[in-house]
User: Which sequence fits this backbone?
């Protein structure tokens, strides 16, 4: 039995050129992209407080959400760590859970280290963990709330009905 709840809901890529990354996915038929730029992020990175600024883009391919993450500064974070060691590319798998505390208890019981976490003041708690023998650099666990359900449904439905127009859509941060 898995420590993680349900199916993989999202794959994440850390990128250094958000526009180029989105265009690459558009050419594969994945769009529209919903973009939030300049999002201030406070988190705990390997046990230390961290403040950084991110730009994010989200789209879907079927039920699977794709997230593109570009860090806008050089603060030490899980993202600069990845780019520094591997370069941009595939970074994480994400699971969404309504039972965040219980899932994190299971992660702790499994002995998986939490390497990036936050969201308490952001409205959605999240944690990136490093399970042994994972096919991803990290696994994200994200709290499923009414707002995240509505957002993911909106993005999935937009992708399902995408007519090829307006492939990149800016959202307020």
Assistant:
């Amino acid at each position: 039995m898995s420590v993680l709840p349900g199916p993989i809901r999202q794959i994440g890529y850390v990128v250094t050129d958000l526009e180029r990354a989105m265009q690459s996915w558009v050419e594969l038929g994945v769009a529209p992209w919903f973009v939030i730029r300049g999002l201030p992020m406070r988190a705990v990175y390997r046990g230390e407080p961290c403040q950084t600024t991110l730009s994010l883009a989200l789209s879907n391919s079927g039920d699977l959400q794709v997230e593109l993450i570009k860090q806008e500064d050089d603060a030490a974070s899980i993202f600069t760590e990845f780019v520094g060691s591997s370069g941009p590319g595939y970074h994480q798998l994400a699971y969404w859970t309504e039972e965040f505390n219980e899932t994190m208890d299971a992660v702790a019981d499994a002995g998986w280290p939490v390497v990036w976490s936050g969201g308490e003041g952001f409205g959605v708690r999240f944690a990136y963990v490093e399970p042994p023998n994972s096919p991803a650099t990290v696994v994200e666990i994200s709290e499923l709330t009414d707002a995240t359900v509505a957002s993911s449904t909106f993005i999935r439905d937009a992708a399902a009905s995408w007519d090829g127009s307006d492939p990149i859509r800016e959202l307020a941060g």
